[in-house]
Specification:
This protein is an alpha+beta fold. It is built from six helices and six strands. It folds into two domains: 45 residues; 120 residues, no CATH class. The longest helix is centred in the first third of the chain and has 15 residues.
């Protein structure tokens, strides 16, 4: 179970500020130092496949027909950070306005009162275009929400990536 907690802290730390990282560190009784998290993040880029390798055995222990896959689209606001492909403007439906931050999609498997992260994707807006309405330069992701959730390059993929990963 310790590996699961480490993975949760490490994958989440990309999206968390220093104060939250310290709270997680305190929760784990100092098992993971801030420096070790930073070294880990500077290493190989982690993907949903890496996360799945860590949590798969835990999911298999609790899975049943009553289990559900929860897909969440969230934005971690970063109003004072310079804009780039990851930290940019996104429409936040909960606030009914555009906010600058990191848009990410997470997949959780929930069953028997336990929720485990099984997949994630950072939304990168790498395409620049000129908005025909106001003439301003804007960014967009080459993948829309449906394509982010799919493993295939077509928008009509039958299953989200995290479902396909869980089936392995």
């Amino acid at each position: 179970m310790r590996n699961y907690l480490i993975c949760t802290v490490i994958t989440s730390s990309v999206l968390l500020d220093r104060q939250r990282q310290l709270a997680y560190q305190h929760f784990l009784n100092g098992e993971i130092s801030h420096d070790s998290v930073q070294r880990y993040l500077a290493g190989e880029r982690q993907t949903s496949v890496h996360l799945w390798r860590v949590v798969k055995s835990h999911v298999r222990k609790i899975e049943s027909a009553e289990g559900v896959l929860i897909v969440d689209d969230s934005i971690a606001e970063k109003p004072y950070t310079d804009e780039n492909d990851i930290i940019c403007w996104h429409y936040d439906h909960s606030q009914q306005r555009n906010v600058k931050g990191i848009n990410f999609v997470t997949c959780l498997y929930h069953n028997a009162g336990v929720s485990l992260p099984v997949g994630f994707e950072l939304v990168a807006k790498t395409e620049h275009y000129t908005d025909p309405k106001d003439g301003k330069e804007k960014r967009r992701s080459p993948k829309n929400q449906e394509r982010i959730l799919s493993r295939n390059d077509t928008a009509s993929a039958s299953q989200p990536d995290c479902i396909q990963i869980c089936a392995q």
